[in-house]
Design brief:
53% helix; 0% strand; single chain; mainly alpha; 6 helices; elongated
């Protein structure tokens, strides 16, 4: 019998050389790897710090100082009460805020003290400005606030009172006062 050779299978083709990744493909790959690493780090951080008690920070009580104390006030509002409140806000921002007195020994003013000094002896303008400030306070904090001085003295820093003066200036301008 003739000898038959088993059929020889063709040799497998050599693997194709790897093609270089494009820049976009490399960026996607790097982003995927970094996202995975960041997710693992976030989990590790949460596990490692879970036992540490945390008290939330009230950002209203964080003291801030103006970057430029000689900052000129913005263009004044066209209405007299709004312009007065804007000047009072600027006075507190640059001259300092105090509690318990219209003006303290360092020359800082409370909200009412700043309004009074900026009203320049115009009691009607001062009364209108104080009424708008009280309205702005009550809009934000409810009707439980009796007066501008009591609101001012209830705070440990001038951040909230100054913000209220700024909001009251906007309110007075919107009302045409």
């Amino acid at each position: 019998m003739p000898q038959t050779h088993p059929a020889t299978a063709p040799a497998p083709a050599p693997p194709a050389p790897p093609t270089a990744l494009s820049l976009d493909e490399r960026l996607v790959l790097a982003n995927t790897v970094m996202t995975e690493r960041l997710d693992e780090a976030a989990v590790a951080y949460e596990v490692n710090t879970a036992h540490i008690p945390i008290e939330p920070v009230d950002l209203d009580d964080v003291p801030t100082v103006p970057l430029t104390p000689t900052l000129q006030p913005p263009t004044p509002y066209p209405t007299p009460v709004a312009a007065l409140l804007q000047r009072a806000h600027h006075r507190l921002l640059t001259g300092g805020w105090c509690t318990g007195a219209l003006v303290d020994e360092d020359g800082a003013h409370c909200m009412l003290g700043a309004i009074r000094i900026e009203a320049r002896n115009d009691s009607g303008l001062e009364a209108d400005a104080t009424a708008v400030v009280l309205d702005a306070i009550r809009r934000k904090f409810g009707d439980g606030v009796d007066s501008v001085p009591s609101f001012n003295d209830a705070h440990r820093s001038g951040r909230v009172p100054m913000r209220i003066l700024d909001q009251a200036a906007d309110l007075a301008n919107a009302r045409g006062l």
